[in-house]
Amino acid sequence: MLMTSELKVGTAFYYENDKKVKEPLIVQKFLRQVSGRQGMTTFFRVQNLVTKSTMEVGLDAGVKFEEVELDKRTTQLSYIEGEGANATFVFMDQDTYEQFELPAEELGDNAGYITPEDEIPVEITFFEGAPVGIVLPVNVTRTITYCEPGVKGDTSGKSLKPATLDTGIEVRVPLYINNEERIVIDTRDGSFVERAK
Length: 197
Fold this sequence. Notes:
The protein is an all-beta fold. It contains 1 helix and 16 strands. The strands form 4 sheets. Strands 9-8-7-10-11 form a 5-stranded antiparallel beta sheet. Strands 14-13-12-15-16 form a 5-stranded antiparallel beta sheet, with no helix packed on it.
């Protein structure tokens, strides 16, 4: 069983809908957390593994979900066909040379953390024989292509500013970070970890 706090991009779980039918869903994006009188609610964008439809769900803290059993194969991103939301990511199994295609839309936030030049191992997950998502290493290193100039003296890391990465996605980084710096990003929620060493 999975707790709400254990759900991250690429995790698949069974969700009971309004009609009391269990649907297999995969997390595409962590959206936000809201706390109130009833406790913490975490919002995710998820995709139904059968219908391929996407939706936003709010899940209360402490709720348990049955994990969807997914088959996994280790591959490497070979190339990206197209651009933006219409791009298709082509992965190759390094042993069999079999190729698997996944649309950027189905990869969710994970599409913004990898490029073919990285040559990092990527696990593709399969549901009933069809590729449905990928599992990335927890931390990846990317280069900032644009952000406002760094502020000297502010090294607390508590104040954040937007920064565009070399893959085109935007993340939030501390004020002291500058253009062209290499940073480590947590792929589970897109948060800044540290400057790359």
